[in-house]
Design a protein that fits this description.
420 residues; elongated
């Protein structure tokens, strides 16, 4: 049956298995008795491709109890068949620390031209754990970027067990290859809280790449130490936008009081760099139920001279939804004064919902307000606007009636009440 599925679905099946969606990571319900295990080991060396594939597949499901098969699985890593190499790598990964003998061969696989081969080898090294640390330490010093990248990836899989390599991973934040930098950043974030102190100190590094990478990793960790938070506040006004953006994001995931974070977000919303402004918006959205306290700040930004700042503020208010209802008058005013067709302000009003309907209908009486923008904002609110719009069809003001009718005509699917 295994062979039939693999022949039918081929590489797609292998990808799903790589994502751990099809092959369980826990011990198989198969009995891993010695006799059956020996048969699988022998089958893995068979001349018959189908037999070898099934043996590798079954060994990958056994887990730690497949340790006696390590030697055979190492040999199978050199098999010409991709599925056998893949399943053998997964088997070694699930055997874990007892597969330490495979470390040298897995390190070699980090040089493969195939991305999937390198990824699987790194995963297996990470699952083997501390027994692989000496080899990975050396790999981090390799002249080949693919090996440094794979070693960093493996350390990320180890999480806290990779603690001894934190200093070297921090050095890689200044690596000449951006792929290695990204992987080292991810690894440090995966190592977790034990890396916070070292990362905190790295925020003072002379290299902007190291400062930025440290801030990115701290964003993942969620800083708790007062000294780290102090350094991140300084990084939030770093001369380099590459550092400011992740610093704002890291502070948003930290234990810093929201009221102390707001002034930093306020400055970031007016930053000349798109990434910093985006980070400020994401930070605001993390306020959750407390996000209403940011509304007055965003309202002032709607009057900013910079269009980018105004649009960013409107977008943030829209993402808050009903919690930003106090900003409706300011948003309507911004929409009235808008000099182009950018839909951000209009969409922000629509996302706030039915609370915006009365203000929009009142604005309809302003002859200077572009009626198409008004109708689009009302229609964008959707079904929750239908009842007040229908009621407005009998309003005393002709302009209000026209606005309501236009908005109802723009709602999809067309409201049956309006048709009736």
């Amino acid at each position: 049956m295994v062979m039939r599925y693999q022949r039918k679905f081929g590489f797609a099946l292998a990808v799903l298995m790589a994502a751990n969606l099809l092959v369980p990571t826990v011990r198989s319900t198969h009995a891993a008795d010695e006799g059956n295990l020996q048969k699988l080991i022998v089958a893995l060396g068979s001349d018959d491709l189908a037999v070898r594939r099934d043996a590798a597949y079954d060994l990958a499901k056994i887990g730690p109890d497949a340790a006696p098969a390590v030697s055979a699985l190492i040999d199978a890593l050199k098999d010409r068949d991709e599925q056998i190499r893949f399943q053998s790598t997964m088997a070694l990964a699930r055997i874990g620390p007892a597969a330490a003998a495979a470390v040298p061969v897995l390190i070699e696989l980090l040089t493969s031209r195939d991305d999937q081969h390198r990824y699987r080898a790194a995963y297996a090294l990470g699952q083997i754990g501390t027994a692989a640390l000496p080899a990975l330490h050396d790999a981090l010093e390799s002249e080949r970027a693919s090996i440094r990248l794979g070693a960093a990836r493996a350390l990320g899989w180890m999480k806290e067990e990779a603690r001894p390599e934190i200093p070297r991973l921090i050095e890689l934040l200044d690596d000449g290859d951006p792929r290695v930098v990204r992987q080292a950043t991810g690894a440090l974030g995966s190592i977790g809280q034990v890396a916070e102190l070292a990362l905190s100190k790295s925020l003072d590094h002379e290299s902007e790449s190291v400062r930025a990478g440290a801030a990115m990793a701290l964003r993942t960790i969620g800083p708790r130490e007062a000294e780290t938070i102090k350094r991140l506040q300084q990084a939030a006004v770093d001369p380099q936008a590459e550092v400011r953006a992740p610093a704002i994001a890291a502070l948003a995931s930290s234990s810093l009081d929201r009221s102390a974070l707001l002034p930093l977000i306020s400055d970031a919303l007016s930053d000349a760099d798109d990434a910093v402004r985006d980070a400020a918006v994401v930070a605001l959205l993390k306020f959750g139920d407390a996000s209403e306290q940011a509304v007055p700040l965003l309202v002032t930004r709607l009057e900013d001279e910079s269009k980018a700042t105004r649009v960013t503020a409107a977008y943030a208010l829209g993402r808050m939804g009903r919690q930003a209802r106090a900003a409706v008058p300011a948003l309507i005013n911004a929409l009235r004064k808008q000099g182009d067709d950018d839909p951000t302000i209009r969409n922000a009003i629509s996302r706030i919902g039915a609370a915006a309907v009365p203000g929009l209908l009142a604005a309809a009486q302003d002859g200077a307000f572009p009626p198409d923008r008004l109708a689009a904002a009302l229609a964008g609110i959707g079904p929750t606007a239908v009842t007040p719009l229908i009621e407005s069809l009998t309003a005393d003001s002709v302009k209000v009636r026209i606005a309501a009718a236009s908005a109802l005509g723009g709602i999809e699917p067309r409201p049956l009440q309006a048709i009736a």
